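Following up on my earlier thread - several people asked me to post the actual chain instead of describing it. Fair enough. Here it is, all 236 residues.
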Amino acid sequence: MTAAKVGSCGMKNKSYYSDKLSAEQLRQCYQIAPLRVKQYLNAEIQYVLNKIKPSDIVLELGCGYGRVLQKLCKKARKVIGIDISKPSLELAKKLLKGNLNYQLFQMDVINLEFPNNFFDIVICIQNGISAFNVDKEDLIKEAVRVTKKKGLVLFSSYSDKFWEERLNWFILQSKAGLIGEIDLNATRNGIIVTKDEFKATTIRLTDFTSLTSKLNIDLKVEEIDNSSIFYEILVT
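Reply from S.P.:
Thanks for posting it. Predicted structure:
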């Protein structure tokens, strides 16, 4: 796999991120992030990079415009990114120009068109488990299915300690017209809701252990930077 390929595979679910918040609009969300939020974003990426070996084949679920892929390509042998938004994938292709070890696919995260036990590491960070408009248990099962035995699956969500910074960032996105107006009456306890029906939740430890209770996995949980909770699955 030496070149980018944007296909149309298994598209079933459309969401806010494919209909409104994609490509340059999504990129702008990160550009306007306050310094503390950028620290959180960088801490997540560094945590993932520390897990990757140069021989690894890595899959990123919900790769967007390639924000994380740019870093992954410098560490892993091969990197594959999938997303439901074609505009985001097209922008990622432009930003990743010059890298020869990646592929991009437009694909549904709960219908991954990859063989069993294929990837060394599968990542879904920056609260992707909440952002995807899919069944969370099916999402985790698919991520585990395509991961090699003794491979890793990395999910992350927000720490409760980061609530004020997270909410402030979403308010900035709303003021910039990137997402709808924040519904402050409905926004509380780790859940952000906009008046145009966008909803961002928090996946806490009790939520994640409930979702994975029927899977044959080893789970490690780690908080980093007082901002992010990583759920690290060792596939057995």
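The chain has one domain: 8-235. That should answer part of your original question.
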